[in-house]
Amino acid sequence: MVERKIVVIGGGVGGLASAAKAIETDPDTKITILSEEKYPPYRRPSLPHVIKGNISSCDQIAIYRRLLRSKMVRLLRETRAYGIASNEGKVKIKNLKTGAKKTLRYDSLIIATGGSAPRPQVSGAKLKNVYAFRTFDDAVNLSKIAKVGGKAVVVGAGFIGLSIAEALAKRGADVTLVVRSRILRRSVEPDFSSDLKKRIEDCGVHVITGGVVERIGGSRKVEYVKVVGKKIKTSAVVFALGVRPSTELADKAGIKIGEHGIHVDNHMRTSDHKVYAAGDCTETLDLITRKYLYFPIGSIAAIQGAIAGENAVGGDAKSKGFIRAQNERVFGIDVVSIGHTLDEAKKYGISASLVDLDPPIIKRSLWMRKYPVKIKAVVDKGERLIGIQALCRKFSIQYMFAPLWALREGRTLDELRETWRLPHAAITDFVKMRFY
């Protein structure tokens, strides 16, 4: 029997999930994973805890340890893939430490190059202590700067920006959050943004809305930023402006790039039949709008990776599409955001409206009255669910199961209300649900 060889480019969750599924499907497959990181693979959402001082070693947030112990899996760290010779079935790689180059042969290739943190073209952006937050080293450096009496400016109010601002504030730093429009603009409605802004300010963070960083000043390291014509003294600037797909390698190899990332079909196959892609480097088929969009979310990357890995060893896994679903805790508030907001729905051509929902029966108990919740639903003309959002202090997981199930099944608002009356049935259905 000829040994199958798979090369996975990228040591993030998408690449690791693909390797794990490939090994599960065909235990005789030999897999090489390429990672530019000097550390073993780790969980990026845990990086704010490094800033807080709760985590001191990358080993504390390591992931897929069992997979990486397999004799059939080889992890090459500090290694960059710089070329793909698809007609020969080879990847050109370079060791970032020694500069040595060589090629690896593959039967199937999985591109999981992830995304990069964009850094705006603003004067002073290359000064010391200006970060585009993405790596463990970024978090370690910020943890050294974060201290009582220190000053930091965080630019961006997505979940990553809010988590960084919260971590710095908890270390005692004086934090200013610069927001171009509003808090979590793509995830929640305007009044929820206002609620969150008040909560953030109550926690001691200064929030500047409607502004951008015009200039970063200092000699060797950052000393101030200029926002809406005003100078703000600071010892660190963190740009948390989302994620940009890393598609350069695929593009150079002649693989089709869509509007939002590497284009893949529902088998996660690219335009090259031997090459698959998964994670933040790809565009994603949205189940609700049936449009290809960009969802740089770990849970989606893991599912995409599993599909790619299974198919790379001859399987036939496929996806019907994906739904953005996030449940994050920021500044003591649980934020649930599933599907699309009203603005996003309209942006994609859906005539939609907003409905404030009464709390479901499952929360009408003494312990839940202690933790009130606000819930909003976005529905189309036929009352089909387009999105759900919730703000609460605790127990947000119960606001995930039924809405996500209803959205995946294309249910109406009335059908969601009925499902929420039967929480155990909803959870059972969710657990049984296959995501591809």
Mean pLDDT: 91
CATH-assigned fold name of the largest domain? FAD/NAD(P)-binding domain
* Radius of gyration, in angstroms, nearest whole number: 23 Å
CATH superfamily placement of the largest domain: FAD/NAD(P)-binding domain
Shape: globular
Helical stretch tally: 13
Distance between the termini: 30 Å
The biggest beta sheet reads:
5 strands, parallel
Low-confidence blocks of residues: none
Number of strands: 25
Question: Can you put this structure into words, describing what you see?
Answer:
Helix 1 (13-25) packs parallel to helix 8 (298-312). The chain contains 13 helices and 25 strands. 26% of the residues lie in helices and 27% in strands. The protein has 3 domains: 5-116 and 244-312, 3-Layer(bba) Sandwich (FAD/NAD(P)-binding domain), CATH 3.50.50; 130-239, 3-Layer(bba) Sandwich (FAD/NAD(P)-binding domain), CATH 3.50.50; 332-432, Enolase-like, domain 1 (2-Layer Sandwich). The strands form 7 sheets. The protein has a 5-stranded parallel beta sheet. Strands 9-16-10-11-12 form a 5-stranded parallel beta sheet, covered by helices on one side. The radius of gyration is 23 Å and the shape is globular.
